[in-house]
Amino acid sequence: MRYTISGIFLLAVAVHLHAQAPPQGARGAPPTPEAMAPIDLTGYWVAIVSEDWRFRMVTPPKGDYPDIPLNPAGRKIGEAWDPAKDEAAGEQCKAYGAANIMRMPGRLHITWDNDTTLKIEFDAGTQTRLLHFGPAPTPSAAAQPTWQGQSAATWEGRLFPRGGGPRSGSVKVVTTRMRPGYLQRNGAPYSANATMTEYFDVVKEPNGDQWLVVESIVEDPEYLTVPLVRSTHFRKQADANGWNPRPCSAR
């Protein structure tokens, strides 16, 4: 499986190297983001935890985050992690925010909420992300950051291939306005100043399996010394079998 997953990741990264502009002289109303989608992200997907098992399948001990580049301020917060305090404060969802929800074991259900917005529902923590193509809704000045933040999406790749060939590509998502949360369930923090860039790719194998590969890059000048880069894999399911909504847990 490790060899297969590595191959999938390399294929997914290669997609970003072949962008094309729409054909000149196109007439009529531009296609909606749903209509011009070069890949189909919709359906049910199950997380395949083939790496970082002890950090994702169970809650690691306090201070155990060797692959997260925390600065001294970030480590200080991580070392003070106390799940009982999070529960008492109603902050059980701090590890289920946008910067870590894709790393949670479980399932995704992806649909088009409308022809400009992709919706990702998670059974872990019963969270929902909205990926907005085009102008995103403008939050009011008084609006507070949320667990899933504000996500702006764009298609990349061969959207209008010359000669009528097949379309291919990926979706780039930039998320801001995230409520402070955890990059791991054991309290490794990210701040309200964090920004996350993601690339969603779909790869099809000869045996018919379809994989969703999500590369994420979290930048946080407040708590990280360098960007945190992670790759997460999901396999497509035929239906909702195994879908198991459950609330956030601080432990």
List keywords for this structure.
single chain, 251 residues, nine-stranded mixed barrel, disordered N terminus
Quick synopsis:
With 251 residues, this protein is α+β, with helices and mostly antiparallel strands.
Shape: globular
Please give the order of strands in the largest beta sheet: 1-2-3-4-5-6-9-10-11
Largest sheet report:
9 strands, mixed, barrel
Overall strand count: 11
What structural class is derived from the secondary structure elements?
alpha+beta
Rg, nearest Å = 19 Å
Estimate the strand proportion.
25-35%
Ends apart, CA distance between termini: 30 Å
Question: Which residues sit in consecutive blocks of at least 5 with pLDDT less than 50?
Answer: 1-6, 8-21
Helical fraction = 10-25%
Give the total of domains: 1
- The residue-averaged pLDDT reads 90
> Helices and strands, in N-to-C order?
HEHHHHEEEEEEEEEE
Q: How many helical elements?
A: 5
Describe the protein.
The protein has one domain. The strands form two sheets. It has a nine-stranded mixed β-barrel. Mean pLDDT is 90; it is low at 1-6 and 8-21. The chain has helices at 2-15, 53-56, 72-79, 83-88, 98-101; strands spanning 43-47, 107-114, 117-122, 128-133, 150-158, 168-176, 181-182, 189-190, 195-204, 210-219, 228-237. The chain is an alpha+beta fold.
Which secondary structure elements does this structure contain, and how are they paired or packed?
Elements: H1 2-15, E1 43-47, H2 53-56, H3 72-79, H4 83-88, H5 98-101, E2 107-114, E3 117-122, E4 128-133, E5 150-158, E6 168-176, E7 181-182, E8 189-190, E9 195-204, E10 210-219, E11 228-237
Parallel strand pairs: 4-5
Antiparallel strand pairs: 1-2, 1-11, 2-3, 3-4, 5-6, 6-9, 7-8, 9-10, 10-11
